[in-house]
Design brief:
By secondary structure, this protein is of the alpha/beta class. The chain has one domain: 3-Layer(aba) Sandwich (D-Maltodextrin-Binding Protein, domain 2), CATH 3.40.190. Strands 1, 2, 3, 4, 5, 6, 7, 8 and 9 form a nine-stranded mixed β-sheet that branches. The longest helix has about 35 residues. The termini are far apart. The chain binds succinic acid. Succinic acid binds next to loops.
Length: about 350
């Protein structure tokens, strides 16, 4: 009987303790603490911004700047969630993910739009934009406007062009100084027929590979060369697999900033205005900072002897230009006379 009493008391105490403390009934009468951080979370608009570059690059930094300004200017009503380094989508599937509204913003290299929009190849023509100012004129003038208009048929809103830098050639074989140095080499390229034609004209072969697969494909010698900006070469440590870099400035790598169009249309006018104003400001920031970022990352590679750096002299540059003339002839019918002539105006101004 004593044992029965002791067991009953034990069970009763257990249930009472669980109800009072464990299930929190004792606190039910206390007022809940107010957490203003949680207020309005249900109404928060999230923009998932996915990109493949590293954080410490012109694109990575521009996305961060845009995100923090948007958060501030909308008092936290819009949050831009950044997914860098291709952690969410890579360059081969991010456009479709944007269209499906799985992500709301991307900023692919312009060359990556050329399979859907062939006229975009105009930006890949070799030696088309001799100075940084010419690149800016192309992006912000009639060429850029014509290209952005093309996107309207695909439910994608083109917001702006962002800057990175001129592409340089790297090689794990010999230095690339004369057109004949390209013979029998195999290069990684972005998916643009003009870029492919450029290497064909130089006697090299190519494979289209995602940005984040360049390192490993160089490492196993599937490819033995590639072209990219100093910033991308530095931040992706491509110098570890490459012996030579030629400062050729033969093409420009920049970005188009895109948003899902339905998402855009559902935003309030006030939010759209903030996004457009912030985008213009970030574009200007990207223009002013991209050159210095590329220069300082190139200086760092030179300082540490990470890769042997070569510069094309005028005579070598002329030999490259002559060898690449056929690329213009091939591309003209695809690009169309209007855009082609606009580029020729920029190319030949000096
Ligand atoms: C990027 O800068 O977004 C990638 C460029 C590349 O694919 O080479």
């Amino acid at each position: 009987m004593k044992a029965f009493f002791a067991i009953s008391l034990f069970i009763f105490t257990g249930i009472f303790t669980a109800l009072f403390f464990g299930f929190g009934l004792g606190e039910a009468s206390e007022p809940l603490e107010y957490d203003d951080e949680q207020e309005g979370l249900e109404d928060e608009i999230v923009i998932k911004f996915s990109h493949v570059a590293a954080e410490n690059t012109p694109k990575g930094q521009a996305v961060r700047k845009f995100a923090s300004l948007i958060q501030k200017r909308t008092d936290g009503e819009i949050k831009v969630e950044i997914h860098a380094n291709g952690t969410l989508y890579n360059d081969q599937n991010e456009y479709q993910a944007l269209k499906n509204n799985h992500i709301q913003m991307i900023a692919p290299a312009t060359s990556k739009l050329t399979d859907k929009f062939p006229k975009w190849q105009v930006l890949d023509l070799p030696f088309a934009f001799p100075t940084y100012k010419d690149v800016k004129k192309a992006y912000e003038g009639p060429i850029g406007q014509t290209l952005l208009t093309e996107l309207k048929n695909d439910q994608v809103k083109g917001l702006s062009f962002w800057y990175n830098g001129y592409k340089q050639m790297t090689s794990s074989e010999d230095p690339l100084l004369r057109p004949s140095d390209f013979k029998l080499m195999h290069f990684r390229i972005m998916p643009s027929p003009v870029i492919k034609a450029q290497y064909q004209a130089l006697g090299a072969s190519t494979s289209v590979l995602p940005f984040n697969k360049i390192y490993e494909n160089l490492d196993v010698d599937f490819i033995n060369g590639q072209e990219n900006t100093a910033s991308n070469i530095y931040t992706k440590k491509l110098y570890e697999t490459q012996d030579h870099m030629t400062i050729s400035n033969h093409g420009y790598l920049g970005y188009v900033v895109l948003m899902n169009e339905i998402f855009w249309k559902e935003l309030s006018k006030e939010h759209q205005d903030i996004i457009q104003k912030t985008m213009a400001e970030t574009t200007d920031w990207s223009w002013r900072h991209s050159i210095e970022m590329n220069d300082s990352q190139l200086r760092e590679m030179k300082r540490t002897d990470a890769i042997e750096v070569h510069y094309l002299n005028d005579q070598q540059k002329q030999l490259w230009e002559d060898a690449l003339e056929s690329v213009y002839k091939e591309a003209r019918p695809v690009i169309g006379d209007k855009l082609f002539n606009e580029v020729m105006k920029l190319k030949e101004h000096d």
